[in-house]
Design a protein that fits this description.
Elements (H helix, E strand, L loop, with lengths): L1 H17 L14 E3 L9 E2 L4 E8 L4 H4 L8 E4 L2 E4 L5 E10 L5 E5 L5 E3 L3 E8 L6 E19 L2 E8 H5 L3 E11 L2 H4 L7 E2 L10 E8 L3 E9 L4 E9 L2 E8 L5 E8 L4 E8 L3
Parallel strand pairs: 2-12
Antiparallel strand pairs: 1-3, 3-9, 4-5, 6-8, 6-10, 7-9, 10-11, 10-12, 13-14, 14-17, 15-16, 15-18, 18-19
Length: 278
């Protein structure tokens, strides 16, 4: 059984590591941001099983947008004068490094070296297999921003091309993200011919949660959510593949306790989830 799961995980990981994510154009009119945010955060990882999720980002158009409107971060002092450079464009932005990822988990982008022009939508794959200990792994993303503009010194305009690290000696850091590693005990305890539903993650959840289930064959699976009064409030059809499947569930459910179930036409399995306020 463990050999079967190992082979399955290696196959899935190879597929994701060779696949390229697709930026979501819905975010093009947004300001500088990353999705999911640090409140929703990243889905959990299960020890020894293939992990895959995507991160979307919108790069800033100007330095003041990159500084989240803080003008104190977009003023430079040189030769006894202060210069406001918040209107300078963001020529490009790069994810320099991702610190704190569990071993075996990688991040790569839809662009070479995670290098993005300003004012575009991009994305990144987070994928791999880890056997690191169960726990919470805080993640820090280091970012460098490149820009150009001009300042007037003694009446003469001087062209400037620089980047955040060259100018300040430090990268911008984004903190608050984390990967939680869960034990593999429950997932190892089923047979390859079983139809199995796992607990949603995160639980409790707010606007988004993830469901994993194992299907012994490719099939159409009905996903249903029922409230505590027995009312069927959501029904979706999922095209399940043979093996471990992951389903992202975005919703606007009111806070409370719900039952969710999957049905492959032969067997129905249900579990309970808790929805909290956003």
């Amino acid at each position: 059984m463990q050999k079967f799961l190992l082979t399955l995980s290696i196959t899935i990981t190879y597929f994701f590591s060779s696949a390229q994510c697709t930026p979501n154009s819905l975010y093009q009119d947004s300001s500088y941001n990353i999705w999911p945010d640090t409140v929703q955060n990243l889905p959990h990882v299960t020890q020894g099983l293939s992990y895959y999720t995507q991160i979307y980002l919108k790069t800033p158009e100007t330095l003041i947008e990159a500084a989240s409107g803080d003008s104190s971060l977009t003023t430079i002092d040189t030769l006894g004068n202060s210069y406001y450079i918040g209107t300078w464009p963001v020529d490009s932005m790069t994810m320099v490094s991702t610190i704190g990822l569990p071993s075996g988990i990688s991040l790569d982008c839809n662009t070479t070296s995670c290098f993005f022009p300003g004012n575009v939508v991009g994305c990144a794959n987070v994928y791999g297999i880890t056997n690191d200990p169960v726990g919470v792994y805080p993640i820090t993303i280091e970012i460098n921003v490149y820009t150009h503009g001009s300042i007037t010194v003694f009446g003469f305009p001087i062209a400037v091309e620089t980047d955040l690290y060259t100018a300040t000696g430090a990268y911008e850091t984004i903190e608050g993200y984390k990967i939680v590693i869960d034990a593999a005990t429950d997932i190892e305890a089923f047979h390859k011919d079983d139809f199995v539903l796992f607990q949603n993650v995160p639980n409790p959840c707010s606007a988004t949660t993830y469901f994993k289930f194992y299907s012994p064959k490719s099939a159409s699976v009905q996903f249903t959510v029922i409230d505590m009064f027995g009312r069927e409030i959501i029904t979706n059809m999922i095209s399940a593949s043979n093996g471990l499947n992951s389903y992202k569930f975005k919703h606007s459910l009111a806070p409370g306790i719900y039952l969710y179930s999957i049905n492959n036409g032969v067997e129905q399995i249900s579990k309970r989830m808790i929805v909290v306020e956003k």
